[in-house]
Amino acid sequence: MIEGIEVLCHSSIRICREGKMIYFDPFQVDRDRNDADYILITHSHYDHFSVEDIFRVKKEDTVIIVPEDLFSRALDLGFHQSNIISVVPNQFYKVNEIEFETIPAYNTNKAFHPKENNWVGYILKLGGNRYYIAGDTDITEENKKVVCDVAFVPVGGTYTMTYKEAAELVNMIKPKFAIPTHYGTIVGERKDGMRFQELLDSDIKCKIDIT
Questions:
Q1: Under 8 Å between Cβ of 106 and 138
Q2: Residue in 165, 168, 166 with CA at minimum distance from that of residue 180
Q3: Cα–Cα dist 36/16, whole Å
Q4: Distance CA 164, CA 97 (A)
Q5: Nearest of 209, 38, 19 to residue 127 by alpha carbon
Q6: 177 contacts 1 by C-beta, under 8 angstroms
Q7: Do the Cβ atoms of 164 and 198 come closer than 8 Å?
Q8: pLDDT digit of tens for each residue in the chain (211 aa)?
Q9: Apex 45 CA angle, 32 and 157, nearest 5
Q10: Which of 36, 40, 164, 195 is deepest in the core (most CB within 10 A)?
């Protein structure tokens, strides 16, 4: 279920499954990989839509999936229009051989990620499993209803949930695995991953720093 998954840095996730290479929010990628079949972007902040890192993973036929407000910027990066998929929250999409849903990602008690921006998290359906990549979000009415097998959730606070709030959400939605993100670099302490793990219900497995 978590084979072939790497958390590269911050909220940058790389999934290699079923012969496909899928990136979420590539950031501070260590070298030119140029192996992405799909890049999924949650929102426009520099640590999630990083032009330098998109170029490090992009290849000629990469499909990039972005919120609507990033469509023109994706065109400016040289993606062919047919390889740019713009998305809105609360929808189901099938793009070639991958299927995913968009979950609203927004703040409820701070102003960094307004709901009206229509930024997203994703539920990727792959190999019979559901992978929830939350994006930058607080606990919301929408993500309390998420059904998934693996949950990637931000735990660093300030701009997103704290580790306590992230654990509260995960204990509500009951994935088989929980993987903390968005801590220990730009925001949050390295210990936040362990603090998050300690608050999870005993039947939820936690993986920290999977590479």
A1: yes
A2: 166
A3: 10
A4: 36
A5: 19
A6: yes
A7: no
A8: 888 898 988 889 999 988 899 999 999 998 999 999 999 999 999 999 999 999 999 999 999 999 999 999 999 999 999 999 999 999 999 999 999 999 999 999 999 999 999 999 999 999 899 999 999 999 999 999 999 999 999 999 999 999 999 999 999 999 999 999 998 888 878 889 999 999 999 999 998 865 4
A9: 110
A10: 40
DSSP alpha helices (H): ranges in 67-185? 71-76, 163-173
Burial state string for 63-95 with b = 16 or more CB within 10 A and e = fewer than 16: bbbbbeebbebbeeeebeeebbbebebeeeeee
Report the amino acid identity of residue 164: K
- Within a 10 A sphere around the Cβ of 108, how many other Cβ atoms? 12
Angstrom distance (rounded) from CA 50 to CA 55: 9
Distance between CA atoms of residues 64 and 57, nearest Å: 11
The residues pairing with 178 across neighbouring beta strands, listed in sequence order, are 151, 206
Q: How many Cβ atoms from other residues are within 10 Å of residue 1's Cβ?
A: 16
- Please, what is the Cα angle at 137 between 80 and 117, to 5 degrees? 50
CA separation for the pair 86, 73 (Å, rounded):
11
Question: pLDDT digit string (tens) for 47-71?
Answer: 999 999 999 999 999 999 999 999 9
Q: Which amino acid is at 128?
A: G
Cα 49 from chain centre: 12
8 A C-beta contact, residue 119 and residue 144: no
